[in-house]
Fold this sequence. Notes:
This protein has ten helices and no strands. The chain is mainly alpha-helical. The termini are far apart.
Amino acid sequence: MNKNWQSKLEDKIKKYLAGYSACHDFYHLERVKNYSLETVKEVNCDKDILIAATLLHDVGYKNNEHDDQNHHLYSIKIAKKWLPEVGFPKEKDADVLEAILLHDNFRWDEKSETTSHIASLIIQDADRIDALGATGIARIIYYYGEKSWPIYNPDPVSKSKKVWLNHSLLNQMKRDPMKKWQNMNFEISKKISKKRANFLKEFYKELKKELEFHHKR
């Protein structure tokens, strides 16, 4: 399997995302790639498709922060341009684009959206793994800081299926960690992330206790 295209693609992405937000920088993409490759030890999937899709799945955040919920569409646009330029196997392009399109296509309060596209399911899990544990905590705090959203807000926010809302960091942490873990598509993903999910859950409990000690009405 010729990986010359991979080094060329990584170089493009590193240059493009140089100095960009730590939430969705090259290192996030690299971690998602590595988690995905752990999954394929037990789940069969074309590694070329998986590597290309993981490296490109979030590049569309840059320059589209005003519309970040559609970042996958901007990522696809970039992928269509870059894949031919780096010599990626043309017959695999469609699967890469499909995986990018569907990588965020899940509900946070229920099981993942039904799809038979294996690369999409693997990347969904890998992306969620990187949102758990100490790394996940660092990323979400960084993200909330960028958005200037509050750590604590005593006023409840109405329930929504939208992933990001202008509500408190504490509220977001309450909604996410165990749902991310429970709704993994593969058992190996649960094995990889169970400790991380529990760590985030305990962090939430401590944060809640400290904040409510000072702010409880």
